[in-house]
Amino acid sequence: MKKTKKKLGEIDFILFAIILTLVCFGVLMVYSASSYSAAFKNNNAEFYLWKQLMWASLGVISMIVTMNVDYHKYKRYTGKLMIITIVLLLLVFVFPPVNGARRWISLGPLGFQPSEIAKYVVVLFIAMFIDRKGEKIKSFKEGIFPCLAVAGVYAGLILAEKNLSITAITMMVALVMLLISGVEIKKFAKIFLPIIALGVIFIVFEDYRLRRVIGFMDPWKDAQGDGYQLIQSLLALGSGGLTGVGIGQSRQKCFYIPEPHTDFIFAIVGEELGFIGCAFVVILFILFLWRGLIAILKSKDIYGTMLATGIVAIITLQAIINIAVVTVSMPTTGVPLPFISYGGSSLVINMTAMGILLNITRQNNYKSL
Predict the structure, then answer these.
(1) How do residues 86-138 score in pLDDT, each as one tens digit?
(2) Which spans are transmembrane here (predicted)?
(3) Is residue 112 helix, strand or coil?
């Protein structure tokens, strides 16, 4: 009797195309947003373009590799990755602070943020934990509490680096994964108030965070101080109108918006490409969420479902928060726009995670021969 062979199906080509479109658009916008300041500071208008192209290329290679690795294999390495990540999160305190925060490990001209790895390691752990616990995950004592406690350890280390935004995303993703696993919302009642109280404390007792909140409530009250960046962002978006002033023609990137190629790159998109450009980016992220949800719903096992949920949640939450900040819909945070903002470690790690998500879609579509 002939044995049945399992064959991986094709990747979700729509999802693959969405990711590559976002990355290519990001490289273009990084060049456009950074060219003016790079010409002055680095004597090379293409300085950030070539760096972003290099990181994007490494990211694509990493995505292709993980796209062809069975996602179930990550279970056996999750424990080791968790230990390594804790070491890396502690190692940042050896290096000098950057803008008052210790988030980076610098290796010569290169550097990366361990927090970018940590949020995905938390996803790997929770996916494995939920898969092993089964129905017990719905128990507060055996499932919810230990799961959130482990996530809280990583979130606490990230918070110690003065990175409240990634701390919040890490915990929010943990909650999303638990909710998708079937945990009832009412069971979170025991922890909601303490978490909210801690959030308020971390904001009120950290001067720069409190000033950001006050600046958000009335940016024009301190137009040259805490409200400056928000006002410049609104000016950029307002100047773009429907179709924008044209690619490369932004005025706000000329030392008005600080480092416009990073967290506030969406404002440059709005100025240069107008409402149409902003809508294009938002639609791409909506399409990403759509294909991500399909991957979640079609997953063949609990582990794949939870892994896809965590990965999709990280990208979606970061996109929502970044766009909300740039449009002055929430206080300023240091969350980059996934695939578009300049940043080597963030781009490569996100692309690696996309490979895992694409591998899940391949296994969702396997055929028996």
Answers:
(1) 999 999 888 877 766 678 787 766 778 899 999 999 999 999 999 998 888 88
(2) 12-33, 53-69, 81-98, 110-130, 142-160, 166-183, 188-205, 264-290, 302-327, 339-360
(3) strand
* Residue where the block lists tokens 């965070």: 209
Q: Which residue has the tokens 């995303």?
A: 169
DSSP 308: H
Would you list the DSSP string of 72-94? Answer: GGHHHHHHHHHHHHHHHHHHGGG
**Residue 120, CA distances (Å) to 106, 169, 250, 326, 349 in order:** 21, 11, 35, 25, 9
- Its domain, for residue 192, covers 69-205
* 0.90 surpassed by pTM: yes
Please give the DSSP secondary-structure letter assigned to residue 141: I
Partner residues linked to 112 by β-bridges: 105
Count Cβ atoms below 10 Å from residue 166 Cβ, excluding itself.
24
Nearest to 82 by CA among 112, 125, 116, 113: 125
Nearest 5°: the CA angle 365, 367, 369 is 170
Co-location of 153 and 277 in the same domain: no
Q: Which of 158, 188, 205 is the C-terminal boundary of a domain?
A: 205
Cα radius of gyration (the chain): 21
CB 278 within 8 A of CB 55: no
Long-range CB pairs of 80-83, under 8 A, 24+ apart, other chains included: 81/121, 81/124, 82/121, 82/125
Match 């590559």 to its residue by tokens: 20
pLDDT digits (tens, 9 = 90+) for 12-45: 999 999 999 999 999 999 999 999 999 988 889 8
Other beta carbons within 10 Å of 281: 24
| Last-in-domain residue among 186, 205, 224 | 205
Task: Quote the CA–CA distance of 97 and 103 in Å, as a whole number.
Answer: 7
- 167: which residues sit within 8 A by CB, 6+ positions away? 155, 156, 158, 159
